[in-house]
Amino acid sequence: MGIGKYRPSGRKYGPPIVSCNDYPEDGNKIVPSLREALILAGLKDGVAISTHHHFRNGDLVAGQIFDIAAEMGIKDLVWVPSASFECHSSLIKYLENGTIHHIEGSMNGALGRFTSEGKMKGTGVLRSHGGRYQAIQDGDVHIDISVIAAPTADPFGNATGDRGPAACGLLGFALADSQYADKVIVVTDNLVPFPCVPWHIQGNYVDYVVVAEKIGIPEKIVSGTTEITKSPDRLLLAEMTAQFCDEAGIIRDGFSFQAGAGGTALSIGVFFAEMCRKRGIKARFARGGSNKYLVQMLEEGLVDYILDGQTFDLEGVRSMRENPGHVNTSPFTSYNYHGKGNFAQYVDVVILGATEVDIHFNANVVTHSDGCLLHGIGGWMDCLFSRCVILPVPLFRDRMPVILDEVTTLCGPGELIDVIVTERGIAINPLRTDLIEKMKTSRLPVKTIQQLKEEAEKICGKPSRPKFTDDPVAVIKWVDGTVIDTVFKLDKLR
Amino acid sequence: MDFHSEHLAKAGNKEEGIRSDCFVTLELADSGGIQLELVSKVESMYGESILTLVHKVLDFFDIRHVKILLEDSGALPLVLAARLEAAIKILIKTDKEFLLPLIPENGYSTAPDRNRISRLYIPGNTPHLAINAGIHKPDGIILDLEDSVAPEKKYEAGYLVRNALRGIDFYGAERMVRINQVPNGLSDLPFIVPHNVNLVLIPKCEGTEQVRLVNEEIVRIRKLTGTTGNTWLMPIIESALGVMKAFEIARCENVVAMAIGLEDYTADLGVRRTDEGQESLFARSMIVNACKAAGIQPIDSVFSDVGDMEGLRRNALKSKVLGFEGMGCIHPRQIRVVRDAFAPDEEEIDRAKKIVRAYTEAAEKGLGVVSLGTKMIDAPVVKRACKVIDTAIALGKLDAGWKDLS
Fold it and tell me: Which candidate in B54, B135, B331, B398 is best for mutational testing of the A interface (most A CBs within 10 A)?
């Protein structure tokens, strides 16, 4: 259909109207256990249950939900996480025994492999963070029960992520769930008397509060890549990317940027900071995921605000708690395509990763070149609407070329992707004549994407494509809820 | 796949964290044909091409009955072929070599006086480091067969270095190999000399004999294989005796640069190596003086703390002051620091520009005497200024068209 062509009509989805008369007069919504809360919330065959991923690989709650459901003999649940991690591989047994029918969210690592092998009963759905908000808001996804793990909460259900033993920073990914799910359960291991301030989740949306012994493993919650890369090849990529931004005139007083969590992206942030310091300029805002390097920039006055979607390390959590310039945001404010604008559109430059890119600048972020689902989309798709999208990627990983004739799975249309930076050359999208003009006198190795592809093939050889069956295992939703691509079951997988 | 025989050969690496490499287990048999098991992380992309290559190699060595387990972590064809050949040659004695094409990019030769400010050491048996070495733009890349290769891996490293010299694009860096200490190092030469190695480093050099042996062997191999071009030599002085013989060594045929290795030198002296380098001042000065007297380049030792960029910078600046013209690097991130430290600074460049201009003007006017202000300028001063300008241009510190720009 084309980008921006699909215009929705109708009205947003509305959860059921309730009356405060049906809730405890004293505001105390505590129930004795998660099991009871789930039963009260109407746990039964076929319902959709959502969780957030702010605890990343240290999540202790999602697993418990399905342990309880399996014990009760409940079948065909739909799990709607905002993202999945390796710790959720334990749910494979519930996908196998029919407790969970399918996943709408992301299928990472072992879950991805399981899906690609065609073993999931239903068809998976992958959405971006913004796409998830859109889908819930528009009613594409109906959540029956949302379970929100909260590092600190009060008996009314107000909850925050910035303090408590399992502090994770913020709870923005659970915002849509709190607003639109039929029933909302907050689970905390740090109950405080009313009011819990600040409240990232408003208790007015919450049905039940459960106090648990432990909801997350702190050292695994901050398990994003938190150090800049030591790999000389990646540092070179980061340096080339930063230099490109500089020469393209992006690094100027009042600019804005977003860099992801990987080691290369972190290093680019560090190079940006150095440029600002040297020139005595500062950025107006940086979009998180935040980390200690971004926090340093904030505290050094090199950036006015961090508009943060998730915190990747403890410094990020501390800063969010202490610094009014470190602002918690949500997929609603940052990414929602069916909203009255979103922050991602106004970012000057965004640095993203990709598993594959093709000669038309299309990119893939969910499957690897062997055809296997491996990653979620995260905010990746939503960020493509920023003013300049740069993908620093190695020309090849071991022997796997990253630039191909055609991506295995389309996640980002080429018209939104401006620059591919590899260690052996930089390709600028022909649509960006302005950038091409600016880089005419650059000493950076600017090449065509075709040249880069050929260079990779010269080194690695021409790759064969993975073989698929005709059975779809997952669909990839675009930010407006339309299907952008389908992932098929692998024909052969070692 | 089960292996039973004692005639088993293994080559390559497969430990955790190994990338772009492979591990071959090979057993010759009398019957049963070719039994091949491939375990590869790139099987969906390159499974067929790997099998084709394996069959080609087996065919080349006339192997009809064999069991092979190939465990591949994303090795390039030149790595696969090197590992396979190494394993085969453990069991079969033959002079035949399975050579992949020498890529056209690798056909260049180097001038004896080219810049050798930064030269990057790459362990000779670690393919993933070699593949991307050139992108960091060192002046030279050293594929090391000596200290960075474990004794039990020396054998297979030769094949890998040979294939790397033929198949990896070094993007214009001088293609160097550090051989093992002579006499053992002489047997490394057939792996590299016919494959357009530009320069051979001779470690632990203590006299002219070692250099002569290497040079003669190179000449012999070149003749035998019809190899053209030059193979320069860079002896490394690593002992008190070597230091005393420095000048003689520097004057040997085809020697274009001489380096000092301070870890072994300080050990030989029985002193601790310090950052200040007081203990090696004599040796370093001897090397510089010997090289200058012989008209070749003096090259300083490596700086071993890869995390300490500031220490490296101080060290490199001191080297430059002593008269060294370059340093070894053991990590790509050191290259820029070394290059910047050895590069002429702005004051040097300005002065050199003035001298060259004055000289050019004087020459145009047909004046025999060149002066700058009230100072007379001698020919060696002009020569040095030209060298500063050339280096500044090569390092991107000065635009090549500087004369027209100002």
Answer: B135
